[in-house]
Amino acid sequence: MTNDTPHDSVRLEQVSKVYGRGESAIIALDAVSVGIPSGSFTAVMWPSGSGKSTFLHCAAGLDSPTSGAVRLGGVDVGGLSEAKRTALRRERIGFVFQAFNLLPSLTVEQNMALPLRLAGRRPDRAWTREVVERVGLGARLKHRPGQLSGGQQQRVAIARALLTRPEVVFADEPTGALDTRTGGAILALLRHVVDALGQTVVMVTHDPLAAAHADRVLYLADGAVVAADEAPTADAVAERMTHLGA
Fold it and tell me: Total domain count for the chain?
């Protein structure tokens, strides 16, 4: 048994991502090697906007790195066919995108259940009830996305990601469109799925208060991991971000 992958849900090995060629090339990720332990909550922060979504997309197998390897549950994603990669994402990964990606013609309930339907799985009713309750959508299940606020749409996207009970939830600024109270409830829900269900959460955020819910914060600058904090506090995260941004 190798000792590098069994305890990591996600592992990046010397992952680089370059956009463009020659002098105009932009290095979004520069030989990043990092493991995300199974059953942990990791926040990823950047001092500027560049690169963090690239990190998330490469780690989740949505985008292919220019070089290096990404392993999900010990499986080398780069070695899979597109069909197998799609199946891996559907069965083992939940996504919360900034753009929500809800289908306007479906109700809240139907949008939430869509990944399960695509995977040919039946929803777990007790778990569905718990998720709906925790994201505060009980009165909105028959509504369509166009009838919801941005914050409510974000909650639908989060519920959809959690219903499949994925091994890893990747979240891109999951509290960005939410008021403080709702954002706190969402972060508490992400914390709950880690602590109670042993799921793994990887969250990109710019908010030190959100990052303080995580077990560990990774800081990336100029495409590389430059620091990490265990058991972070909001003040410590804010101070480090100030230094990184200087």
Answer: 1
